Amino acid sequence: MKSITINGSQRESVGKASTKALRNAGKVPCVVYGGEAPIHFSADEIAFKDLVYTPNVHTVVVALEDGTKVECILQDIQFHPVTDRILHIDFYQIFDDKEVTMNIPVKLVGNSRGVRNGGVLRIVNRKLRVKALPQDLPDFIEVDITEMRIGAKMYVTAVEQEKFKIMHSDNAVICQVRTSRTAVADEDEEEEEEGEEGTEAAAEAPAAEAPAEE
Asked: What is the pLDDT of residue 214?
């Protein structure tokens, strides 16, 4: 997984007055949890644009002025209810030998057969929660929808997960192809249905009567 470096300054005071002063100066107060003690720091609001305003996910290296570097992931973020400015960010420190849980975006590839026949693709889960060691966290989870027909559902069990564990139940749906008014029947499905009907008709047809002996 790609990493983003955030250059910050350690906060000496964490009171309301100092927090307000930071925000007025265009900075975001932050905290890193998960280590021996919480690390309070601040950074310019613009420093978070590639971390927050993107569908991608990244690990974060918080680099402080005293030379301290902490590897972490974004855990929680608070926005102003009116202006949508970032008010506060919580990070969680990660370690190479400890598994971490993250929401990883789903990337759909392929052109669904059902969609080509007029069906509508509905994405149920755009991100999946996975658990893995930091070095095994994927940038995204690729899902091939090429063979999905109208009415088909893609479950999380279809995802290859050798290096990470998906933290959803097996019946969780990633996406599905729904029918629509413009949908047309799949040619292969029609052939299968016709074959089944022919077999059933042959099985139900009465046996020919043997000619009467004279």
From this structure: 43
CA–CA separation, 173 and 113 (whole Å): 18
**30 contacts: CB under 8 Å, gap ≥ 6:** 8, 40, 41, 42, 43, 62, 88, 89, 90, 91
Q: What is the pLDDT of residue 154?
A: 96
Angle at 34 between CA 31 and CA 39, to 5 degrees: 30
Are 167 and 101 within 8 A, CB to CB?
yes
CATH code for the domain in which residue 143 is found: 2.170.120.20
Same domain, 90 and 112: no
Point out the residues of the chain with pLDDT beneath 70.
182-214
